[in-house]
């Protein structure tokens, strides 16, 4: 009986300690001078929002929820706000992309699927041709076309502007392009730029990440290059084994380079035939180029984005 009583007291003490720790860990205020480290987190009063540190190697999901594709500020009330009141370069339920002498709003991609550092793609408003433009660094890879002709699914799915209401505003030297959503439509009213250059607007994916080389479908821009690149050259994903140790070369260990940067570099180099496209970090950071002979049709090899030509065979 005495042992049971001691056990009950011990369990109650542990329960109280756990509750106290949980309350402390679930605080919603960080006072001046206090620190927030990897062992702490801030939780909103209603428990719907949590601020915490996440390691760079985290997966695409967190607590069984889709996570890691975008970081956005969700506004809740815009009734008495003008478009000039919003200065954030993030598109949520009432945001803007624009151009002015002082500011140039844009959306930037992540460096990778799990690293939120600025990546190589950005989405901007072109004030001269009045269109949306996706660029890979300084190379235009996709445009929305005149009157958004290259976003047909957006028009079909949102015919009555229930989720998207596009507006263009002129204010002196400023030209601003924005979209609004009704309060009921805010669940889908956001524009998200993915790490691979694709853009998701609610349930609609703008066709940009398939733009690489010769394609001009859906708003893709044909890539300009040296004389060795002609109309018809394009990138294709292939499994190929290099035939000699001199068939590949590594560029630099620049951690900010993505496979899309590497494809751009390869396209400009007439000796380059392709870029390693595996996601296993086999060769470390930077670019790994295919510059020598290779063979196709073999199941055992490595994934490469190969530049194929219309006039020549891609087998060597």
From TrEMBL:
Signal peptide: 1-26
Record's keyword terms, sorted: Signal
Name of protein: Apple domain-containing protein
């Amino acid at each position: 009986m005495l042992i049971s009583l001691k056990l009950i007291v011990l369990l109650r003490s542990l329960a109280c300690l756990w509750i106290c720790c949980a309350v402390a860990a679930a605080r919603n205020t960080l006072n001046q001078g206090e620190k927030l480290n990897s062992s702490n987190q801030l939780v909103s009063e209603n428990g719907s929002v949590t601020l915490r540190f996440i390691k760079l190697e985290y997966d695409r999901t967190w607590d069984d929820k889709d996570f890691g594709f975008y970081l956005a500020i969700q506004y809740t009330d815009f009734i008495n706000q003008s478009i000039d009141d919003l200065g954030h370069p993030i598109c949520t339920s009432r945001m803007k992309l624009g151009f002015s002498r002082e500011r140039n709003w844009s959306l930037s991609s992540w460096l990778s699927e799990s690293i939120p550092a600025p990546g190589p793609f950005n989405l901007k408003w072109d004030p001269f041709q009045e269109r949306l433009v996706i660029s890979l660094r300084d190379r235009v890879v996709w445009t929305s076309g005149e009157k958004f002709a290259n976003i047909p699914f957006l028009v079909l799915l949102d015919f009555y502007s229930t989720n998207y209401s596009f507006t263009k505003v002129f204010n002196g030297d400023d030209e601003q392009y924005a979209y609004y959503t009704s309060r009921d439509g805010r669940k889908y009213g956001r524009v998200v730029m993915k790490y691979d250059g694709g853009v998701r607007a609610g349930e609609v994916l703008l066709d940009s990440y398939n733009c690489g080389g010769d394609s001009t479908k859906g708003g893709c821009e044909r890539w300009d290059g040296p004389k060795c690149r002609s109309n018809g050259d394009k990138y294709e994903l292939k499994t190929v084994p290099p035939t000699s140790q001199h068939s590949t070369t590594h560029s630099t260990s620049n951690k900010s380079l993505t496979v899309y940067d590497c494809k751009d570099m390869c396209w400009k180099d007439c000796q380059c035939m392709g870029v390693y496209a595996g996601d296993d970090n086999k060769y470390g950071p930077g670019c790994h180029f295919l510059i020598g002979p290779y063979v196709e049709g073999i199941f055992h090899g490595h994934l490469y984005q190969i530049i194929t030509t219309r006039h020549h065979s891609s087998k060597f």
